[in-house]
Design a protein that fits this description.
11 helices, single chain, TIM Barrel, 263 residues, alpha/beta, 8-stranded parallel β-barrel
Length: 263
């Protein structure tokens, strides 16, 4: 199933789309396939699988730690694709690969796009390639079998946000606050107004991430957006409670979202 199809399916059901992020190879390579299955079973709709990178500048300490531990244990781009291929044998859940540019350049961009699609990926999110930053690379992704997921920040001007979304696929990832990833105690005060304004400007569904860490926050975002992205809080649950703990945490978000009213 394509990424956009899953968002459309959830919308028709009157539900928000839940997008959980995990780092490939964390807490171990052997556990990664089980983690993905647990997240799907717990209600994850579009799974985001992070490729470990040594300089994850957009990520806060929690995801940085998971990345460094995965790298120390030997996780690679090829290893991530193998994990995805193993997961794909028993699941049709859409998977978006999350990466920085350097790992793709080292692997070879054309080879990566082909191998990622063959392994079962449906989308690609490149955190350090803003729209227009590398037109040839962006065109290569847009022409591939992977959806190019675009990012929009609170500081993005409205006219640029429209252009960004028009050149993206799957969904628009709205960063809820400036800074790096990480759980936060409360959502930003302007989030509702900002997301509503963005949704009026774009045709793609909008998912909100960066900082969502509780069922209450997930429910609140469900009331204003098409989807919820959760990363750092999920990584913490996985680190502290293993696969079962991660599944239980995600299930609590799913339950809260299902009780919320979508816009």
């Amino acid at each position: 199933m394509r990424v956009g199809e899953r968002f459309a399916e959830r919308g028709k059901e009157g539900l928000g789309t839940l997008v959980p992020y995990v780092t490939s190879g964390f807490p171990s390579a052997d556990a990664s396939v089980d983690v993905l299955h647990a997240l799907e079973k717990a209600g994850g709709d579009v799974l985001e699988l992070g490729i470990p990178f040594s300089d994850p500048l957009a990520d806060g300490p929690t995801i940085q730690e998971s990345t460094f531990r995965a790298l120390e244990a030997g996780m690679t781009v090829a290893g991530t694709l193998e994990i995805l291929a193993q997961f794909r044998k028993d699941s049709d859940a859409p998977v978006v690969l999350f990466s920085y540019l350097n790992p793709l350049l080292r692997y070879g961009v054309e080879a990566f796009l082909a191998d990622a699609a063959d392994a079962g990926a449906q989308g690609l999110l490149l955190t350090d390639v803003p729209m227009g930053g590398d037109p040839d690379l962006e065109e290569a992704v847009l022409d591939s079998r992977l959806d190019l997921i675009r990012l929009v920040a609170p500081t993005t001007r409205s006219e640029r946000a429209s252009v960004i979304a028009a050149s993206g696929q799957g969904f628009v990832y709205y960063i809820s606050r400036t800074g790096v990833t990480g759980a936060q105690a409360a959502l930003t005060a302007d989030l509702e107004d900002d997301v509503r304004a963005l949704r009026e400007q774009v045709d793609l569904p909008v998912a909100v991430g960066f900082g969502i860490s509780t069922p209450e926050q997930a429910a609140a975002v469900t009331g204003i957006a098409d989807g919820v992205v959760v990363g750092s809080a999920l990584i913490t649950a996985l680190d502290q409670g293993g696969v079962e703990g991660a599944g239980a945490f995600l299930a609590s978000l799913r339950s809260a979202m299902d009780e919320a009213k979508i816009p």
